[in-house]
């Protein structure tokens, strides 16, 4: 009887990962993978905005509760939220209870629906900025990776023009890295080659 195939073992990871199991799992399975599902893209955009001023591990630990509190990031449902839903969310200890961030999530859902009317999907809109293919960087260390780029500034400017909030250039670049629009795994990370564009 043949033995089941073994999962490849992780080698060296990006320096930001650390030893937290949740962070390692996020890095190994999700961060930098090209995402094309509108709901996933919307979730990542909202979570990156929620992270502003906080650590990413704080958001990862709250992520499942965010999904429950915001109806699995269904933009159509969130766009209908009014003052009562915002008040409910501001009392929810499972999310970041910051009024500006909660209200921005509702506003962003409404902006998302308007954007979809023009582009069909958020996926079509956001991936146009990179020509439909992940940009491949070759950073050797974490210290080389910028907090923002001219491209993230352009994305931020356009999203702000369309009514989105908490989408500054740094947040947009973090989102672009998470959603796989850019491959920013450092070259010594085992995921770099796995996600490198042929």
Task: State the gist of this model.
53% of the residues lie in helices and 2% in strands.
Question: In words, what does this structure look like?
Answer:
The chain is mostly helical. It has one domain: Endonuclease III, domain 1, CATH 1.10.340.30. 53% of the residues lie in helices and 2% in strands. The protein has ten helices and two strands. It has a two-stranded parallel sheet. It is globular, with a radius of gyration of 17 Å. The relative contact order is 0.17.
Strands, helices and their partners?
Blueprint: H1 21-29, H2 38-51, H3 56-69, H4 75-78, H5 83-90, H6 99-119, H7 122-127, E1 135-136, H8 150-161, H9 169-178, E2 182-183, H10 190-195
Parallel strand pairs: 1-2
Please, what is the CATH homologous superfamily? Hypothetical protein, domain 2
The neighbouring-strand order within the major sheet is 1-2
Oligomeric nature of the chains: single chain
* Unreliable segments of 5+ consecutive residues: 3-8
> Mind describing the biggest β-sheet?
2 strands, parallel
Helix content: 40-55%
Proportion of residues in extended strands: under 5%
Give the CATH topology.
Endonuclease III, domain 1
Using DSSP, what is the number of strands?
A: 2
How many helices? The count is 10
- Order of SSEs, N→C? HHHHHHHEHHEH
Structural class: mainly alpha
Please give the CATH class.
Mainly Alpha
Radius of gyration: 17 Å
Terminal residue distance: 36 Å
Average of pLDDT: 94
Estimate nothing, just give the exact number of structural domains: 1
* CATH architecture label name: Orthogonal Bundle
Silhouette = globular
């Amino acid at each position: 009887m043949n033995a089941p195939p073994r999962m490849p073992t992780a080698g060296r990871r990006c320096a930001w990962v650390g030893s937290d199991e949740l962070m390692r799992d996020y890095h190994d399975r999700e961060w930098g993978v090209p995402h094309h599902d509108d709901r996933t893209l919307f979730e990542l955009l909202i979570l990156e905005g929620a992270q502003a001023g906080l650590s990413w591990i704080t958001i990862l630990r709250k992520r499942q509760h965010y999904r429950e509190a915001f109806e699995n990031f269904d933009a159509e449902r969130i766009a209908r939220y009014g003052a009562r839903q915002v008040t409910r969310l501001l009392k929810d200890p499972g999310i970041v209870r910051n009024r500006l961030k909660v209200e921005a999530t509702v506003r962003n859902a409404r902006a998302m629906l308007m954007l979809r009317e023009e582009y069909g999907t958020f996926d079509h809109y956001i991936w146009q900025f990179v020509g439909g293919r992940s940009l491949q960087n070759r950073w050797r260390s974490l210290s080389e990776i910028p907090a923002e780029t001219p491209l993230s500034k352009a994305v931020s400017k356009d999203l702000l023009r369309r009514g989105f909030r908490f989408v500054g250039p740094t947040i947009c670049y973090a989102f672009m890295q998470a959603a796989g629009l850019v491959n920013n795994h450092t070259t010594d990370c085992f995921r770099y080659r796995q996600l490198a564009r042929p």
